[in-house]
Structure formats: structure tokens, C-alpha cells
Amino acid sequence: MRRSAGGSERTAAAGGARGRARESPLKYVPLIWAALRRRKARTILTFLSIVTAFFLFGVLQGVNVGIKQAMKLTNTARLVVNSRVALYDPMPIANASRIAAVPGVAHVAGFTVLAGTYQRPSNVQLVIGTDLAAFFDIETDLKIPPAELAAALRTRTGIIVGKALAEKEGWKIGDRIPLHSLNIVKKDGTSDWAFDIVGIYDLPQTEWATRIFGNYDYINDARASAKDTSIEFYVGVKDPGQAALIAQRIDDVFANSPNQTRTQNERDFAESTLRQIGDINYLVNAIVGAVLFTLLFLVGNTMAQSVRERIPELAVLKTVGFSDPAVQWLVLAEALLLSVVAAAIGVGLAALILPAVASFPSQGIAAMHVPNVVFAAAVGVGIVLALASGVPPAARARRLDVAAALAGR
Amino acid sequence: MTAVVSLKNVVKRYSRGKQQVEVLHGLNLTVESGEFLALMGPSGSGKTTLLNLIGGLDRPDEGEVWVAGSRLDELSSGELARWRARHVGFVFQFYNLLPVLTAERNVEVPLLLTKLSRSQRKQNVQAALELVGLADRAKHKPAELSGGQQQRVAIARAIIADPTLLVCDEPTGDLDRSSAEEILGLLEILNRKQGKTIIMVTHDPLAAAHASRRLHVDKGTLTAQEERSAA
Fold first, then answer.
1. B17: Cβ–Cβ under 8 A, 6 or more apart, which residues?
2. What predicted TM-score, i.e. pTM, was given to this entire model?
3. At what angle do helices B177-192 and B147-159 cross, to 10 degrees?
4. Which of A10, A214, B47, B76 has the fewest CB atoms below 10 angstroms from its CB?
5. What radius of gyration do chain B's Cα atoms show?
């Protein structure tokens, strides 16, 4: 305890003022928190803006990650045959036998897709009508007990559903699933279809098992229009090393026909389909970049206003002994607290919501999630945002002339 | 007695546009330990400038400023900040409390610069608030306190780190007579019972009457001096 200069009796209030050493930067948190609470509405609005921006950041990065993971799961040894005129333009199903005759082709499956609502209009399910035997020979990743596949082959109305979808809808083998079709009208003029679950397939990543496969013939025989067509052919090859050559052979078969084809391996097909939307990676980065750039001005303006309004208070801090760098760090800490916490919450919300969205079968990309690297990136971007928006006002606080500030100059 | 404050030939100039205005002209001043000095004078005479120099908030253009054994005009900005934290408590006319902090948090602010633990800081804050008679208002924010109470909180903040010197700039300038007397009485107690050296700038002769010595500043020089008869 230091005594006052005159050696007078000690000030009661200051007993042990410079006593035991135990320092923590956390002791400054009330000061920083108080500064943020000074204009609650402004702080909350800025905070929500940052949360929203980083939510968008997390969602877009999560979608990007989902797409990339989906790409990784595609197989270059499987071929997809589409109409050269337009994607999913119907082709004669009879082309399946011509494709099957191409040397090197092991299996061919044509497709038709019935989109129907289940129980409520918002619950849209897609039934992929195909040659189930051929399809499951090509798609070896799909695991199904042979007895269930056999049951599907002998039951016209039989469908095989993904495990994740079955769990979500509470379906089990033996259930009858009525669907009200949105795209295929029956010959009798109705749009109501009934399917029987005879099998449940699984995938190494169960959350991806969200589709429904049925018999092509059942849908094709009952439909009123577009009979005997396929929107795509799925091809398994005997030698994956020959896939490119076989693709070329298939296109050559139809080169001089009214149904010219474009044959690609599964990965190329997925990538070219995505390219029709645009460069997803570029779009994601451009949107996030624009949002963060706008945010920079918003947070920068908030911080500048905040410091401008608190000039006398900052002067008081310097008066009682806070050094120039200490005051500068207090202002920076304010910007950091605001930006980093909001960024973490924004990305956290995205991390919570994305898997929920992805869990809706047929609604999104099942692998969508916010990986740890995106969390780290969000915190990093939050820090950069805080520094970029906080450094100018913090520098102003550092340069503050106490005497002039106290005099209101 | 020892001199706590010693100013030698201090000159201070300010820039007003392209003009240099000399506010203090070769001023000399000595303040002994335990003194209660009132600086009086008309507006613009240089009282606050003088107070800022003594409190280490400003630097002279010429001359030497010695306070509590340190030559302030030679200290760096960081050294001066540390010196202020250790040696000076400030009391302002408009209290200058942080509006979003409670009374106890306001008083605690200077202690954040010490190495005291949270419980020690709390204990000291409680003692300071008791000393100024506001222990029961510890959780109130400045807006919930009267002017006199706010000034008492400011005094508690000024003395919390046991400074050598209390520097008060018009501490009663914003208060009614009754509150002003309370504050002046409190300063007298700190001066007499705690031995605090106090330098107070005031326009008010009644406030100055509480000081043990009164100096008049006019146009940047000390013009008159009077001692108070023993109370």
C-alpha cells in the first residue's frame, strides 16, 4: 500500500490498491460491454446484420461443400446418356436395346420420373421408374437384400425406398403409398397412383438414401401420354478404362438419328448440369464477398459513430491512466466482440439449419453441412471485418488529445 | 513540508488557426504536500490549462513541471499515462462518469489498471463509496443519481487508487449551493483527514473559501495570493 505524498494516513478506499498481482484481460469486458450497450438499438441492428451475413456465408459454403462432396461420390465408370437436343428431352425407350448392343456395355436402364404429392401438397416425392434389375446392377453402391429386389421385380406396383426417406416418413415394407401425380396423368384421366413398398435400400452414407425406385413398366403402361420414352439412360460398362470410348460409340450409334445423344460419365454429367446454373463456387464467393464488403461499411460506420459519440468518455479513460494503446485496444476489442461473436452465431445457425434442410428428402443435397473449416474461416473473416472496421476509429481514439477532448475542442 | 507540485517558468501556447496564442507566460508555482489550493480567475485566464499541466494531461512549451517527484514535461505519453494512474485523481465540473456503468463500476475503472483481484477491487470500491456516503447507491447508474451524488461518485473514482494529488476543475460549477457545500465539505475531509493535496479551479469565491490557499490567475500569470486564516 502506497502512502500519500505527505505521509498522511492512508486513504481507506485504496487499501491494498497495488497489492497482490492477479491480472486478467477479462476485467476489461464490462467496459467493452458497456460501450456496446451505450446505443442498444444500433448495436443490436448491427449485430443482426452480421449474424445474417454470416448465416448466408455458412449456408452458401455448406451448399458448396455439399455439391463438392456429391461430385466426389459420382463415378467416372458409369455413363449417362441424354438427348443432345436438351437435357431430359424424352428419347424412345427402345434405344435401350441399341445401347445395350454397343460393345463394352454391360447394363442399360432407362428412366421416367413420376412427381407426386404424398399426404400434403408440400410433400413432393419422386418415383424413378426404371428397369430395377439393370439399375441395381449398375448402381452397386446401393445396398438391398436380394429378396427385396426380387420382390420389386415381381410386383408391378412395387417400389424400393431409401432408408433415410423411410425413416423420415415412417414407412416400412408392406406399406401402400398413394401419390397424387403432378406430371403424369393416367389413361383413365386420374392422377392418383398407388405404390407398395417391397424393399428398402441403403448407402454407405445413409443420409443420402432418400430416393424411390419403381418399375418403369407400371408407370409406362398406365400413363396417358409420353409412353415408351426415357428421359435418360444409365449405362454400366464392362471395363471402366474403356468408358470414354464406349461413350463415343453410343453417341455414334445415334449420330444420324432424330434422337442424337450426348453421353458422359457420371461426374462430367453432374458437372455439366451444374454449369448450366453457373460456376457455383464463383457465385458463392461473389455473393459472400459482396455481402461482407457491404458489411464492412455498416460495421465501420457503427464503430466510427460509437467512438465519435464517446470522445469525452474515452478522454476520461485516458485521464485516469489508460494509455493510448490501451484505449485503442478497447475500441478494437469492441469491434472484435461484435463481429466475431455475431459471425460465430451466424455460422452456428447455418450449421444447425443446413442439416435440417438436407434431411428433407428430395429437397436438397444430403451432404450439406458447415464443416469446421468454414467455422474457422468465419471467425477469421469476422476478425478481419473487426480490424478493417475498427482500426480507423481505434486509431482516432488512440490519437485523442485528452485536454482538447475534455474542453470539447 | 515537501513540495508536491513545482512549476518553473512554464509557458504554454495554443495554435488558433495560423496564430500561436500564449496562454501561460513563464509561470512559477509551488504547492506543498497536504495543501488545499484554489485557483481562481476569469474565464480564459489559463486556470484549466494550468490544471491540465499539473495533472499530466498536457505539456508545457517551455519550462519544467515537477509533480510528485516526476518531471512531467520529459515523460513519454505512456509514462505520463502510468504516472496519472498512480499519482492523480481528477474531478470535473460535469462529473464525466461513464453513463452505462453503475456507480460502483465507474469507481472501479482506475483500479482496472492495477493488479488487484476482482474481490479486492470490489472491497476498495465499497470502501470508497462508503467514504463519500453513497454505499447504498452502488448499483445505480449516473442518470439515476442527482448532480451532487454523481459528483460524489466522481470523487470516489478520483480517490480509489490513493493518488498523491486531487485535481478538481470547477467541481461545484454544476451544482446547487447545498450540493456544492456537501462536495466542498467532502474535499475538506479528504484534505484534512486523509492528507490529500488538492488543487481546485473555481470561479466561486464561496467554494474557494474552503481552500487553505487561494491564487488568482489572470491572463496567464499568477497575480494574487491569499492564505486562509486557520479554521
1. none
2. 0.69
3. 20
4. B76
5. 17
